[in-house]
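Sequence, please.
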């Protein structure tokens, strides 16, 4: 996932959910804000009907969608989407709890 280039363009999988292109800088680490922001950039392209919400049919991973849909109304807002990835960062990505995802945590 990490590259010396300013912008990473490969996709991968973290905890069973497809990741998005993450900004990687010379310091070889990704902050929570950078991580969540990179995923937030994928919200609109996934919103196939353009209503500003994601439905389970618009999101590939059904189990992850259920966790993302915090109010269980069958659709995920951008805020719920960002909260989901922020939580994923804290629980599964930032293994040492320092607020950054680094190559030693891959």
């Amino acid at each position: 996932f990490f590259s010396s280039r300013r912008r990473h363009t490969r996709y991968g999988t973290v905890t069973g959910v497809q990741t998005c292109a993450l900004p990687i800088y010379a310091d070889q680490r990704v902050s929570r804000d950078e991580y969540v922001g990179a995923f937030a950039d994928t919200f609109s392209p996934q919103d196939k009907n353009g209503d500003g919400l994601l439905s389970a049919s618009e999101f590939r991973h059904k189990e992850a969608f259920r966790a993302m849909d915090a109010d269980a109304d069958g659709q995920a807002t951008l805020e719920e989407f960002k909260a989901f990835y922020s939580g994923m960062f804290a629980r599964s990505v930032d293994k040492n709890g320092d607020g950054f995802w680094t190559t030693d945590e891959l």
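Residues 22 and 38 are 6 Å apart (CA to CA).
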